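Narrative of activities, Objective 1.

The group set out to show that a structural description can be obtained from nothing but a protein's sequence at a throughput compatible with the screening campaign. Below is one input-output pair from the validation batch, recorded exactly as produced.
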Amino acid sequence: MKQQKRGSTIEEQTVENEEEKSQKIADMLEDTTRKVVGISKLKNTGSSIFSSSSENELGLGTGIIVSSDGYILSNEHVTGSKYSKCYITLENGNSYDGTVMWSDKDIDLSITKINAKNLEAVTLGKSENIRIGETVYAIGNPIGYEFRRTVTSGIISAKNRTIKIDEEEQSSYMTDLIQTDATINPGNSGGPLITPNGEVIGINTVKISSAEGIGFAIPIDIVKPIIESFKETGSFEEAQIGIYAYDREVLPYLNKNLNFEKGIYVAQITKNGPADNTELKQGDIITKIDGIELNTMNDLRKYIYTKKQKDEVTLNITRGKVQKEIKIILG
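Output recorded for this entry:
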């Protein structure tokens, strides 16, 4: 009997392992796409790529189911702001009227409610654990109904990215973004960025049109407390600290002379807000909140989202060479 070479056996096992791995990923993607929805601001648009209406006019975009009782996570620029109406289409073709229950323009996220039960929800991962070079997949509706639930793949190209957005003669900054080379087109906005095990680590958002192969996603960790509040209580009362602050990555856009190693820079204190008439001043660097270190605005947002109105928080701030503790009652 002819003996099989050991090398040949190893090669065959490698091929089998790769086929098994590929099959698992295909199964995962098939499962996840069932939990991805289409979103339109207009009803009965026909949503054809041959329509004379533009993508912006139709408001075509993507969202994900985050609870069995009909909460949908997406971008604010897709659904509209709080109390806006939009239209949600599930994978099975059923359409629902949706009401935006919460939104935040600064991080471009929203949560919409539809009157549906027993839905399959996505699995949320931990965006804080991601590493550069990891494989990711983006799912969305890139240019309308005909190309719904398109899957693209790539890697995590970078973390904690800051980008400047110029629109309507105003500039804003999105910070702490996940950068990926997975193809993301306008209609992909609001769709999930997922790992090979099917966990959502980000929500796809803006794409830089001047560069190929650069897309961004908002880390999922920031919105988890809000999702949990809606799932448990059906509501979310957002606490406010009443400041506009920037990560140190934004400062080169604003003032190249400003420099600090950690913390966030207080650019403005909202008049009559919770931080007004406290010891906090414009130009302070907030390094900690209740003992938790802050390096990005999302660090602050994520913590504030877990608090309630009228809760007291303690800020550690640096002002030149002076360090202070300041207590603020959230509003």
